[in-house]
Design goal:
Blueprint (H helix, E strand, L loop, with lengths): L9 E8 L2 E8 L4 H7 L17 E6 L2 E2 L8 H5 L2 E3 L4 E2 L3 E4 L3 H9 L5
Parallel strand pairs: 1-7
Antiparallel strand pairs: 1-2, 3-5, 3-7, 4-6
This protein binds FE2/S2 (inorganic) cluster.
The site of FE2/S2 (inorganic) cluster (FES) has 13 residues, from loops.
């Protein structure tokens, strides 16, 4: 007999948004963006499919799983960048939002010099 009511882990997210720190819970099966919305916290977003990078953040502590982050190079994921619309928490998180411009520079800056 399978257990269809398996408990999903819930993590604590501490997000710096325009200089203010907000805390909210986020389940392991929920994107960080959806967790914030459920707590009535508004984060930058647009496409919500991991393409546009509007929701870019830097993970300062903890880790996320973001298999659908098409707009983010894997080496930059390894350096802490995350697209919160497709990022599922795998630990308690401390992050800084509003990193779209920094991410753009990191991904494409070398082509503009
Ligand atoms: S909102 Fe477009 S990549 Fe997240």
């Amino acid at each position: 007999m399978s257990d269809t009511s398996a408990v999903v882990a819930t993590y604590s997210v501490s997000a710096e948004i325009e200089g203010e720190v907000h805390q909210f819970p986020c389940r392991a099966d929920q994107t960080v963006l959806n967790g914030a919305e459920a707590a009535n916290i508004s984060l930058p977003s647009s496409c919500c499919t991991g393409v546009c990078t509007t929701c870019a953040a830097v993970i300062k502590a903890g880790s996320v799983d973001q298999p659908d982050a098409m707009g983010l190079r894997s080496d930059l994921q390894a350096h802490g960048y995350a697209l919160l619309c497709v990022s599922y928490p795998r630990a308690d998180l401390t992050l800084k939002t509003g990193q779209e411009d920094a991410l753009y520079e990191a991904q494409f800056g070398q082509f503009q010099k």
